[in-house]
């Protein structure tokens, strides 16, 4: 016989396991909050931009070929910025104990499509150090390109600054808690259905029909001992009243 599950049965399963579902959801949310607020290190971000452009004199006019050349140079410059040579010089300039390997893990270099701007982004546990690394990197890059490539087409477009009350970009505490809550809820619901699936006990007459495929001839009602005692007490009281 084909087994079907009604919406009512699903809701009854959830109702029966509501304590389990709520408990798992709360545990997940609380655990995420504790980890996000007390254990994860806040990470701050600082960004600078450099502009790649050709040097022009006053009589020069706009040339699309020059822009295309600059766009092709950007990929080369991105590789130069992330190279160990540049990062080692940045570490030397900072002289703060941070190494080139550490900077390599914190730096992200990218540019927007068809843009001559290169974005240099640093993520560090210290907001001021993140800004210092970003600004020092742009200065070193500009100096090294002029020195080694004999090119003066790199201009510092914007510098990183630290606000009076910087906000970390990671961890996103409320988002982490929200995600943990959803995951905990899904886990609780899934576990409830799994426990119900592996529960082979016969709980009612419908289970007899579905599992044993036998017709129901009768049902034994549940006897309430307290109700019996009350009935006996009323019967005895009526007997005493008649006898008197």
UniProtKB/TrEMBL annotation:
The answer to whether the entry has keyword Mitochondrion is: no
| Membrane topology listed for this record | Multi-pass membrane protein
Where the protein is mainly located, per its record?
A: membrane
InterPro entries, from UniProt?
A: Bact_polysacc_biosynth/exp, GNVR, LPS_length_determ_N
Polysaccharide chain length determinant N-terminal domain mapped to chain residues: 3-94
Q: Where are the transmembrane segments?
A: 18-40, 174-195
Q: Which residues form the Tyrosine-protein kinase G-rich domain?
A: 140-194
Drop me one GO molecular function for this one.
Answer: protein tyrosine kinase activity
Q: Which UniProt keywords apply?
A: Cell membrane, Membrane, Transmembrane, Transmembrane helix
Judging by the UniProt lineage, the source's domain of life is Bacteria
Q: Which subcellular locations apply to this protein? A: Cell membrane
Any one GO CC term of this protein is:
plasma membrane
Q: Which Pfam families match?
A: GNVR (PF13807), Wzz (PF02706)
* Protein family per UniProt: Belongs to the CpsC/CapA family.
> Which PANTHER family does the UniProt record give?
FERRIC ENTEROBACTIN TRANSPORT PROTEIN FEPE, TYROSINE-PROTEIN KINASE
Name of the molecule in the record: Wzz/FepE/Etk N-terminal domain-containing protein
**Organism for this UniProt entry:** Bacillus salipaludis
